[in-house]
Design goal:
heterodimer; A: about 300 residues; mainly alpha; about 75% helix; B: about 375 residues; MetI-like fold; 2 domains; about 70% helix
Chain lengths: ~300, ~375
């Protein structure tokens, strides 16, 4: 990492030195073009961010205020009615709990099972390995929405419909995650494992204590992906349950929006629920933001 | 490694992949075959389809594709709606993503991190939350119309407006009903006049939504590729005296071709799968079925109308459409002379970005996994 950073700094300073004699010459025209692109980018950024700000503001408005002054960022009168109703009229805590439990189990499951399978496919030699891998690729080509009816059918068939099991198990392993882990394991030098194996460590122990810790970047990526994917998952929870007690935040809020509350001018409550369900993903996003952006930065030097 | 050390490895190999093979087999492969059977059966939703239904041949497919009636015209309408959605969204999201990537990749730019974050954030939020926000933004007296009013434009009642925008455009020239040559019946049970309606005003709001939520993801893909190109080539182009436009079209774009190809493919696959957004608008594709998409139609035919066979049939037709279009696009965009090289370049670039691109892409079409694969490739 440090060498990379140093290399970056070096190339940066080199570029600067090369650039400096030119800089004077292209001053005015260059500067005005930079100014113009800043202006454009700031406007665009505003377009991307404003909807979120306005929704936060909207959730604190009264129903009438949100209809009359949709644009304003500051409510005329601060109202917490929408949030109060979310915890009294609407079983939001229940939905949040379901979402949390399901997301946690799926995330842990995916990290464990995906890396196990990814490791086997990249490092262990066994008959049929290539066929399994090819099958995995084929499976990834199936569009998600095509699976809605099939998934419902199999869950009914197995008696898993309307249960946590039916909501969790089909998502607990994903082919894409296996693929990511396999790719990463292949980039780790094999000599490390060989040393461990010569020292007498078993296959699982080598994987668990030597290789998996080395794959930390990939594991973190997988955690972010799985967390976000399962927290935001919607269509699977539509076809795997109908019991209101099993509503997650996505299906619950969707029910609010597409039902009575979405029509008319009850926007504060649906906006409040949409904002609340965005918070966990936003937190994860901002914590791992460096990593999210750095994976692409890293490619520059790679 | 010696043979002895490999001993027992196979056992562990099978053990390690077993959970994946079992789960994917039981919850992905087997259900597809079950649904394939249902699509050829008259199952009515009661009991297990195995044993409670009869094989009726291609009747379900025939109802959707051949026999005149509501099933066919609904399917035709959904295909038309989604077709316009794809036609508008894919070019727009690709162009905007490329534009954003080129902009935030500029080395003179300060606050690059901020801009990247801002553009990417909508991509990580859930489709439910973001669609809710858009329903709010696009109400009759909502945010968008308030802004339009500021410029003296009287905005439509977006999500309640079923008028097609091409119809509206023709209306400007006084063409408000079908001319004789368009009145005739077109394919899939709707008239040619309906086929050329364009996306409805309501659909336009969903188009904006799609561009808004996907451009950040694709921006990251382009960004990774741009950074792979590196400063040297940029500088070489500059030294050779090419201006910014010339550089973009003669140097940058050709080098981005593999990524462009990936983004277009992912866009095409993703846009044929609109479901969550339509579900959230509530009224079964309302206004006037102009938001109906094949993905949603398959769902509602099965779960609301209880015509399971027909719903499953629509799913498989949609599957076929996506596969066919992806192959067609691959054929059209194939690299003629530098095919091999571009392919290896793409593979290498993908390996370098490692999970980066995969991660970025996977976010796009919810948990849709096929996208990731293409992203890596």
């Amino acid at each position: 990492m440090t060498t990379l950073t140093q290399a970056a700094i070096l190339s940066e300073s080199g570029r600067r030195r090369a650039g400096s004699p030119r800089r004077k010459g292209m001053s005015r025209k260059m500067r005005s073009s930079i100014f113009a692109s800043y202006l454009l980018l700031i406007l665009l950024a505003l377009v991307y961010i404003y909807p979120f700000l306005i929704s936060v503001a909207g959730s604190f408005k009264t129903d009438a205020d949100s209809t009359a002054n949709p644009l304003s960022l500051i409510p005329e009168t601060w109202s917490f009615a929408a949030y109060e109703r979310l915890f009294t009229d609407v079983p939001l805590p229940r939905w949040a709990m379901n979402s949390t439990v399901i997301t946690l189990i799926i995330t842990v499951g995916r990290v464990f099972f995906d890396s196990l399978a990814g490791y086997a496919l990249s490092r262990l030699h066994f008959r049929g390995r290539n066929i399994i891998f090819a099958g995995l690729i084929a499976v990834m080509a199936v569009p998600g929405v095509v699976l809605l009816i099939p998934r419902f059918l199999i869950l009914k068939e197995l008696g898993l419909y309307d249960s946590y099991g039916g909501m969790i198990i089909p998502l607990i392993i994903d082919a894409a995650g296996i693929f990511i882990m396999k790719q990463f394991f292949e980039s780790i030098p094999i000599s490390v494992e060989e040393a461990a194996r010569i020292d007498g460590a078993g296959v699982f122990r080598t994987f668990w204590t030597i290789v998996l810790p080395m794959a930390r970047p990939a594991v973190v990526t997988l955690v972010i992906l799985s967390f976000q994917g399962s927290w935001n998952e919607f269509s699977h929870f539509i076809v795997s349950r109908s019991d209101p007690d099993l509503n997650t935040l996505t299906t619950g809020v969707a029910g609010l929006v597409s039902g009575q509350l979405g029509s008319g001018n009850q926007f504060p409550i649906v906006l409040a629920s949409a904002m609340l369900m965005t918070i966990p993903v936003a937190v994860v996003f901002f914590i791992f933001q460096k990593r999210l952006m750095n994976t692409t930065e890293g490619a520059e030097k790679g | 490694m010696s043979k002895g050390m490999r001993a027992g490895e196979a056992k562990y190999g099978y053990l390690f992949v077993a959970p994946a093979v079992i789960i994917i087999g039981v919850f992905l492969v087997a259900p597809i075959f079950l649904a394939l059977y249902v699509s050829f059966s008259n199952w009515n939703g009661l009991g297990s389809p195995l044993g409670n239904s009869e094989f009726i041949g291609a009747e379900n497919y025939q109802k959707v594709l051949v026999d005149d009636g509501l099933s066919k015209s609904d399917f035709g309408t959904s295909i038309r709606n989604n077709f316009y959605y794809v036609i508008f969204v894919v070019p727009a999201q690709t162009a905007l993503a490329l534009f954003l990537a080129v902009q935030v990749n500029r080395r003179v730019l300060r606050g690059r991190g901020f801009f990247r974050t801002a553009f990417y954030f909508p991509s990580v939020t859930s489709s439910i939350a973001i669609t809710t926000i858009f329903l709010f933004l696009f109400t009759a007296s909502g945010v968008v119309n308030s802004i339009l009013a500021f410029f003296g434009i009287n905005g439509p009642n977006w999500f309640k407006d079923p008028r097609g925008i091409i119809h509206n455009f023709l209306g400007v020239f006084g063409v408000s009903s079908a001319p004789a040559f368009l009145e005739v019946q077109g394919p899939l049970g709707i008239s040619w006049w309906e086929w050329v309606a364009g996306p409805s005003v309501a659909m336009c709001a969903l188009i904006v939504l799609a561009v808004f939520t996907t451009s950040g993801t694709f921006m990251l893909l382009f960004l990774a590729a741009l950074q792979n190109i590196g400063a040297e080539i940029d500088e070489a182009a500059l030294m050779d005296g090419s201006g910014p436009f010339r550089k973009l079209f003669s140097v940058t774009l050709p080098m981005l071709k593999p990524t462009l190809f990936t983004v277009l493919t992912l866009g095409l696959i993703g846009t044929w799968q609109v479901f969550d957004q339509v579900y959230l608008t509530g009224g079964n594709g309302a206004p006037a079925k102009t938001l109906l998409t094949p993905a949603f139609l398959a769902f509602s035919t099965s779960f609301n109308d209880l015509k399971w066979g027909q719903g499953a049939a629509i799913s498989f037709i949609l599957f076929a459409i996506i596969v066919a279009l992806t192959l067609l696009q691959r054929y059209i965009l194939r690299d003629r002379d530098v095919g091999k090289r571009a392919e290896t370049n793409a593979t290498r670039a993908a390996a370098e970005v490692k999970a980066g691109a995969a991660r970025a892409v996977a976010k796009n079409a919810s948990t849709n996994t096929d996208t990731t694969k293409a992203g890596i490739r």
